[in-house]
Amino acid sequence: MAENINLELSSQTTSSWLMKKILVGSDVDQKNNRLRLPKREFEEFVIPEMEWGLVENLEKSVEVIVKDVKGTDYHVTLVKYQNGSYNFVDKWNDIVKAKGLKEGDQITLMWDKDAEIFYIM
To answer: Residues in domain TF-B3 (predicted)?
Structure first.
């Protein structure tokens, strides 16, 4: 089943990119425990800003930090699946629970290449 992704992308500084996403059911379903990131935008804007060692290990999975506006760090796994999609997995449900996220909510993700972390707003 195809997912509808509503995404806006904008450059905030030379070291960060913002991605806005309207969450769909599978993004907040506790059984799935994953957030599918927009492939085209992720490959075009985020990957070029990542350290090469991180990028080359995406298919094996890498741990990244997602920090919220309160300063809470969440250690999630970022992985590229065989179908080519990029996903936050494992501890993604911790973010869903802590922020009370539900289908239809909009989140903003920012990759900060200098700090090498994602921010969620």
So the answer is: 20-121
DSSP 8-state code for residue 71: -
pLDDT tens for 41-63 read 899 889 999 999 999 999 999 99
> In terms of residue numbers, what domain contains 78?
7-120
Contact 76, 89 (CB under 8 A): yes
Helix/strand/coil (H, E, C) string of 1-48? CCCCCCEEEEEEECCEEEEEEECCHHHHCCCCCEEEECHHHHHHHHHH
Q: What is the pLDDT of residue 41?
A: 83
Is 26 among the domain residues? yes
CATH number at residue 107: 2.40.330.10
